Amino acid sequence: MGRLNTSLDGIDAVFLDLDGTIYLGGEPIEGALEFLERLKKNGITRFFLSNNSSKSVSQYLSRLTSMGIDAEEEDVLLSTHDLLSWLEKMGVRDTYLVGTEGMRDMMESAGFNTRSESPEYVVLGYDTEINYEKLSTASIHLHKGVPMVASHPDVVCPSPDGGLPDTGAYMDLFEATTGVRPIHICGKPNPGMILHKVEELGLSPENCAMVGDRFYTDMEMADRAGVHGILVLSGEATILDATEASQKPSLVVDSVASLL
Q: Which residues contact 226 (CB under 8 A, 6 or more apart)?
């Protein structure tokens, strides 16, 4: 994938990570709202992508609206969508969920049992409502040989006060307790997270860009999907990471404020 300049010449659609890219904590990143306006003015289609499975689409829409960002349901692509499609493909119905009530709502609306006493899979999401009962029940299922699937691999969730424990950290906890790792991890960097949209829109991957703050999810997915990777330094990745990385993004900027 070639280099890209900050004017995004030749780009028809952008996929925007949220945590660490558009907002941090409860506040939009400085210049992010103006950047979204510039996308609209330039006729560039945009989608919001998040590996964070702690919230449902409607909760994301409320959050975006509260920050002054107009978005529709079809504009939001979550790792939970990728997980639902994987479970569907595997013919799974009965699960034990370690996840939030928002994630439970999305799974149950799609027809999955999330509290099965004989689950086919333990499903691990970013559970910001974690408690010991969930940890111990899931561990017992894993000890009995029930496999685990996770919504995404992120180890930390960015916050203004530093990284907070995310799904990847919970995976390490379950491995320490049971010796079990997930047999499949959904979400970014799986290229399907964005390629189905690229195809649906009839676009070429080289005319699309993924904007995010992590190498191992955002930039890795851009690479696998054949779209441009734009790394922002407003979240997890640092300029040192960008210098040392073997995989070079098409563009590195301080934040989305530098684009367009």
A: 1, 191, 205, 206
